[in-house]
Amino acid sequence: MIKGKPFVKWAGGKRQIIDKLKKYVPNEFNKYYEPFVGGGALLFELSPKNAIINDSNKELMNVYKCIKDDNKFEAMCKELDHHETMHSEEYYYKIRNLDRDKKKFNKIADYKRAARTIYLNKACFNGLYRVNSKNEFNVPFGKKTKVNTYEGQNLGIVYSFLNYNNITLLSVDFEEAVKDAKRGDFIYFDPPYDSDTTTFNSYTEDGFDKDEQKRLANVFKELDKRGCYVMLSNHNTTLVNELYKDYNIHVIEAKRSINANGKKRGKVKEVIITNYENKKEIE
Ligand SMILES: C[S@@+](CC[C@H](N)C(=O)[O-])C[C@H]1O[C@@H](n2cnc3c(N)ncnc32)[C@H](O)[C@@H]1O
User: Fold this and answer.
1) Which of 228, 230, 235 is nearest to 188 (CA)?
2) What is the model's pLDDT at position 71?
3) Quick one: pLDDT at residue 256?
């Protein structure tokens, strides 16, 4: 089976640590849940037959939905071709600024919005997804002279994966996304990162503050009680260690961009937390 890979570059993407992450995946499980799917690095790596994938980012989940739909997928690909041909700095800002008029933007066909999201991700600075308080995409032009929105055959492989398996796509809060998980199902949580430099009640750009980390830990515990396999990744912070002290905490090193311009890379400690022991780790 040829596996797909993330069709967008996503903050916190797990491609760089995918081999480490895979080691902690249970050997067998029923349904796969990924409530913070982002670019879906582990999703594509595992390519499960039964899965529920979710992200609260509506524009991102709209792309997954359009790739899954025959007609919309074809129309989206044509639109991507068009973006590639037209690509320039001026064109980038024209497409980026479509969301400045919300009335008009909401009337744009979903396949066109999906193509816009992929195009902006490939053409913007450093592949960031960032919106301002008015939900306007505000990342500057990435200065590439050419963009490749398909990356070989990848979109076609992702289309096949979403269509020839039982994959449900949601765009709700993570707690809602896992409400039907049962004993034997596997849930992988990859939330926005906690940080030791942010304090309680401090503003986080993504809205995922310490109270959200605590709410997530409660959901983790509830799923544990239900008999699910639960795995979670995060930074190795004081709060995370405290919240998951009753579980297996594996510390790993990851290479990450450590400042806003993405050029300086450093090693940061991350954790992979599981509520089960795994044979692959011991072998
Ligand atoms: C660290 S990223 C996931 C990265 C992903 N695993 C990958 O490999 O690309 C976290 C994701 O959580 C989503 N998110 C933030 N708050 C959420 C919430 N309350 N419920 C569901 N998703 C949420 C964000 O939109 C973001 O895509």
Assistant:
1) 230
2) 97
3) 67
Does the C-beta of 35 come closer than 6 Å to ligand 1?
A: yes
Residue 36 Cα to ligand 1 midpoint, Å, equals: 4
Q: Are residues 42 and 122 in the same domain?
A: no
The Cα 32–Cα 53 span in angstroms is: 8
Is 199 contained in some domain? yes
Nearest to 91 by CA among 146, 131, 151: 146
Q: What is the pTM of this model?
A: 0.93
- The answer on 102 and 19 residing in a single domain is no
CA 205, CA 64: separation in Å to the nearest integer?
Answer: 24
Select from 115, 148, 164 the last residue of a domain. Answer: 164
Ligand 1 atom closest to the Cα of residue 206 is 15
- pLDDT recorded at residue 204: 58
Which residue among 164, 181, 202 closes a domain? 164
Whether 208 lines ligand 1, by a CB cut-off of 6 Å, is: yes
Measure 64 CA to ligand 1 centroid, in angstroms.
14
Q: How far is the CA of 55 from the centre of ligand 1 (A)?
A: 6
What distance, in Å, lies between the first and last C-alpha atoms of the chain?
25
State the total domains in the chain: 2
Q: Which of 31, 47, 37, 4 is nearest to 151 (CA)?
A: 4
Q: Is 38 in the pocket of ligand 1 (CB under 6 A)?
A: yes
Residues of the chain falling short of pLDDT 70: 198-206, 256-266, 279-283
Query: Does residue 203 belong to any structural domain of this protein?
Result: yes
CB 37 within 8 A of CB 81: no
Neighbours of 192 (CB within 10 A): 19
Candidates 17, 36, 52, 214: which one to mutate for ligand 1, based on the most atoms within 8 Å of Cβ?
36
Question: What's the domain range around 205?
Answer: 15-56+172-282
